[in-house]
Write a structure and sequence with these properties.
about 140 residues; alpha+beta; 3-stranded antiparallel sheet; 5 helices
Length: about 140
């Protein structure tokens, strides 16, 4: 008869569980996404927004509102536009200082990196150096 007591298995250190909270490094504010969407919509030439909206099944009047409003009233439409522009996101509603705020959670770090690069290009477009001012040449007498 074997009277040895089995030793318990070695325990591995337990990492704290994040309880489902998203990675803060992948969250972007409503204002940042709004700025990006405005840039994208402004790339359309004059008169192209309405046909573009019809073609892609977006409400033209709501797109015009996006170009003008600052309030966080179009979060669902912004999320839909982000998906259309190849940036699938999850919409987060977080209470900040007793008011509901909207944030966008990117699905991957690569997607967020590409988003930030495009936004940076819109915010800081490359440009040709301005031509030096021309000075009238005086003819020698």
């Amino acid at each position: 008869m074997n009277t040895s007591i089995p030793t318990p298995p070695a325990t591995t250190p337990v990492e704290p569980v994040n309880a489902g909270f998203p990675d803060p490094a992948l969250i972007v504010s409503y204002a940042t996404v709004l700025r990006y969407i405005r840039h994208r919509l402004n790339t359309l030439l004059h008169g192209q927004l309405k046909p573009w909206a019809q073609q892609h099944k977006f409400n033209y009047a709501r797109l015009i509102e996006i170009k003008k409003l600052e309030e966080e009233t179009q979060a669902v439409l912004l999320q839909r536009l982000m998906t259309h522009f190849q940036f699938p996101t999850e919409l987060l509603r977080i209470i900040v200082h007793q008011s509901r705020r909207h944030f966008f959670l990117f699905t991957s770090p690569d997607s967020l990196t590409r988003f930030k690069a495009e936004l940076n290009l819109f915010d800081n477009p490359p440009f040709d150096a301005p031509a030096p001012p021309t000075t009238p040449t005086s003819s020698p007498n």
